[in-house]
Write a structure and sequence with these properties.
The chain is of the alpha/beta class. It is about 35% helix and about 20% strand.
Length: about 450
């Protein structure tokens, strides 16, 4: 799988992108045989439709790509990717597409070439695109590669993506870009004061660990923290089978952070990047942590365990406390943290929390520009009392069922210190196939963040 553009080719097949209400005018300028062919094939330029025009030699002279209406396009993204997926092998070049749509559609075309084929042969798109002149081709390729890394990590089952395998994936990424990486494993977590990471992961066969990667020596400091729960049984508060089936994706925060890190390093952004990933498996064993236990986190706060299935915020808390000690210019956590976020916004939006209106403004402007939708939710201070059980400083699973994503975000904020902080409560999974986004693991929010970072950090 190679998600790169084709080399410039004067023989590349032109793809004419035609909006529905522009088809009639476009046809007026075409020879009669093309007009007749289009009519015979019933091509009306509906969104996602296509018409291959034959050449005299029996090949393809051109492709007509239906671009529908603005209303139809507003209901999705990467519209040309579905057309790319159906084209025969060859080299193609976009034509007649507005400049402000080029980057999104070119990236979507690249991503149509993604397929998760580790366990079974798949059929990704084979149509190669010549990079449009008005886009940054290397940037699009770096983004596609980072997204593919995220998808591969999420799609891999826990049998091949446990904490040790996630560590190996981090090591490969670090090696590829000359980053430094250290890992604290097993009992050493207790010795070096990461008690909650150790507690959550101690019941599993593979030891819990904290992965710490550094890259870059100049520029503002950026710390990314990703939840790396490689499988979540729920612990002693065991999940039902219907809820456990997708828990290989519970390391989707770590996968998305690593995909974003790949993009940042490949593009050589002038930042000092730190990536922290607490990698654990939340398992059931005689030494599993229990409801009612009280843990003391790295920063000294005590946490009452009212549900062992609310483990992600525990491992993130120790990692955030470590990240805060360096007082970075910006710290961001990403996690597949709560079902409440899915109920609130569904699987397609990346909900996030930030108290910084400048951060939110930059992010949402960027998200619209790169078709990576996000939605701001509030750090609602009046709900702080909901995470304070009385017997300890914090409750990891407030009773009542209200505001589950918000209370989780408030919990995490207690460990971020004074660092400017944002939290993403992502889903990390695409349940329904869509253009450039097959069913399975998917990055959420990473492309928006990459686009916004220069403004956020004054790069």
């Amino acid at each position: 799988m190679s998600l790169v553009f084709a080399a410039p080719d004067p023989a590349a097949i032109p793809v004419h992108v035609i909006e529905q209400d522009a088809l009639e005018d476009w046809l007026k300028d075409q020879p009669e045989h093309i007009q007749g062919w289009v009519a015979a094939n019933g091509f009306a330029a509906g969104l996602g439709s296509s018409c291959l025009i034959p050449s005299e030699e029996g090949g393809i002279a051109m492709v007509l790509a239906g671009y529908g209406t603005a209303k139809a396009r507003s209901r999705g993204r990467f519209h040309l990717a579905s057309i790319a997926a159906g084209l025969p092998e060859g080299t193609y070049q976009l034509s007649d597409l507005a400049e402000d749509r080029l980057e999104e559609e070119a990236l979507g075309w690249l991503l149509s070439g993604y397929a998760f084929d580790r366990y079974r042969a798949q059929k990704p798109a084979v149509a190669k695109l010549v990079a449009p002149d008005d886009i940054q081709a290397l940037r699009a390729e770096a983004i596609a590669a980072g997204e593919a890394l995220t998808r591969d990590l999420i799609n891999t089952p826990a049998s091949d993506m446990g904490p040790a395998d996630l560590e190996a994936a981090c090591a490969d990424l670090a090696s590829n870009f000359g980053a430094e990486m250290s890992v604290i494993r097993g009992e050493a977590l207790l010795e070096q004061n990461f008690p909650m990471i150790h507690t959550v992961g101690r019941a599993a066969d593979q030891a819990p660990r904290l992965i710490d990667m550094h890259w870059g020596n100049e520029g503002p400091t950026l710390t990314l923290v990703g939840k790396g729960v490689c499988f979540d049984t729920g612990g002693l508060n065991l999940k039902p089978g219907s809820s456990m089936g997708l828990m290989k994706k519970d390391m989707g925060g770590a996968a998305t952070v690593l995909g974003l890190a790949h993009m940042i390093m490949a593009l050589e952004l002038p930042v000092q990047l730190r990536v922290l990933i607490p990698a654990v498996e939340n398992s059931v064993s005689a030494n599993a942590y229990r409801p009612g236990d009280i843990l003391t986190a790295r920063n000294g706060l005590t946490v009452e365990i009212n549900n062992t299935d609310a483990e992600g915020r525990l491992v993130l808390a120790d990692a955030l406390a470590l990240g805060a000690e360096d007082e970075p210019d910006l710290m961001i956590s990403m996690a597949t943290l709560t079902g409440a976020a899915r109920v609130a916004v569904g699987p397609d939006l990346a909900p996030y929390y930030s108290d910084d209106s400048a951060f939110s403004g930059a992010l949402e402007e960027a998200a619209t520009r790169v078709a990576d939708p996000v939605w701001r939710l509030p750090f609602h201070a009046p709900y702080e009392a909901m995470i304070e059980p009385g017997i300890a400083d914090l409750d990891n699973a407030p009773k009542g069922g209200f505001a589950g994503s918000i209370t989780a975000a408030l919990f995490l904020r207690r460990f971020a210190g004074d660092a400017p902080y944002a939290h993403f409560d992502i889903y990390g999974w695409n349940p329904t196939p869509a253009p450039a986004r097959p069913k399975g693991g998917v990055g959420m929010g990473a492309r928006a963040l990459l686009e916004a970072l220069p403004k956020m950090l004054d790069l």
